[in-house]
């Protein structure tokens, strides 16, 4: 009679095989003022609007440009949203003056006082 043990691998080994995805400033970065970052954080935007806004920031400030030609398919690739939804969110951001549009070029509006964001009343709707 022998006493042997069977060793089971529960997926915690083989760390060398896992690809690591680590952000590094050497791979590029977008300069963004703290005031804009705080204003974006406090804005009552939908998830789609926020994802499209971040994608536009990446395509403009990420390349040190104030504005750029950005297609809906480029936004879709970054946000993982359908092209139609990207277009809708982009146009909503333009109507709110969070994003500027000049012809086919888009970019962030740095003048926060021009933004027209619908205000959330706060709290949940009252039950009747």
UniProtKB/TrEMBL annotation:
InterPro entries: Phage_lambda_VrpO_N (IPR006497), WH-like_DNA-bd_sf (IPR036388). GO terms for biological process: DNA replication. Coiled coil: none annotated. Residues 22-115 form the Bacteriophage lambda Replication protein O N-terminal domain. This is Replication protein.
